[in-house]
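Dear all,

This email documents one entry for the complex benchmark we are building for the journal club exercise. For each entry we list the sequence lines for every component of the assembly. Then comes the predicted three-dimensional structure of the complex as a token string, followed by one or two observations. Please use this as the template for your own entries, and keep the labels exactly as they appear.
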Amino acid sequence: EVQLVETGGGLVQPGNSLKLSCATSGFTFSTAWMNWIRQTPGKRLEWLAQIEDKSNNYFISYLESVKGRFTISRDDSKSSVYLQMNNLKEEDTAIYYCTWSSGYWGQGVMVTVSS
Amino acid sequence: DVVMTQTPVSLSVSLGNQASISCRSSQSLLHSDGNTYLSWYLQKPGQSPQLLIYLASNRFSGVSNRFSGSGSGTDFTLKISRVEPEDLGVYYCFQHTHLPLTFGSGTKLEIK
């Protein structure tokens, strides 16, 4: 069974940082393209970042508006993908989902940016 | 960025009837590799989005054959035949042909 489990969410003040983790199982992670997607309080879905597999040199793409603040990374030995988020803003408040490009999503983790 | 325009915003359908949702993209979703990377997701209340249709017309594993996707280029349709109570939720189209990947704004299906 494919599983993706996000952790690391919570309440953080504007300007601070947070690192999300996504532990996976049930598929060959090393060949998987992984993404982070968020859902705003208004239910809008927004793709944030993608990291390809080793055969594609772990190529990374970002949504322009988070480039420079968010960093996606992966550890194939742990079947995990991460999202480092710096200089957080109130508009980053959302549910953050880890997804496998084949169509599977985690349950999501809530990030609230507020003073 | 590719804008995905979904209509209608909401849909109220009687049980057993058909529902149809449209998704139009601002650019063709035909990739240079010949595939059209258009997917449909359903987000049931309190859950993560779940994949229904990929490559515009292919049903994902375990998805009921009451769901069908069609279309090409910039115009796509999701049809749900014989609507059942468990079909309620918000439907999203999603393109992953062009970066950045983008979603439609969603169509809320309610049972009449």
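Observations: The mean pLDDT of chain A is 97. The first strand of chain A starts at residue 3 and ends at 7.
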